[in-house]
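>> received
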Amino acid sequence: MTQNALFIDFEYCTGCHSCEIACRNELELPSDGFGIKVLEDKPRQNPDGQWHWDYIAVPTELCDMCVERTAEGKLPACVQSCQAKVLEYGTIEECAAKLAAKGKKAAVFLA
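>> returned
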C-alpha cells in the first residue's frame, strides 16, 4: 500500500490562511479547531543581515489528509485551496524527492 504525504514549501507561503479555512470546513471543525495551522515567524534579522518573515503551514493531529476526498481522487482541501500553491499532495517518495530538491524552507508531513 502506498502512503501519501503533504509537501509544504514554506518559502512562498503568503500567510493567507485559506488552507486553514478549507480544512476547517471540510472537517466541520469549530472556529478554534485546526487540521492545519499557519504559524508566523515574525520579522527577524539573521546574523548575515538578511531579514526573514515567514509563514509556516503545519498539519495538526486532526489532519487526516482528507481521506474521503483523496479516496474519490480529489486533492486534500488545504492543497486544493492553497492560493500560492505551496502545498502539494503525493506519495512519500514524490514528496521526499521534492524536499531533497528544495532543501531549506520545506517539509514533508505524513498523516
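>> The chain has four helices and five strands.
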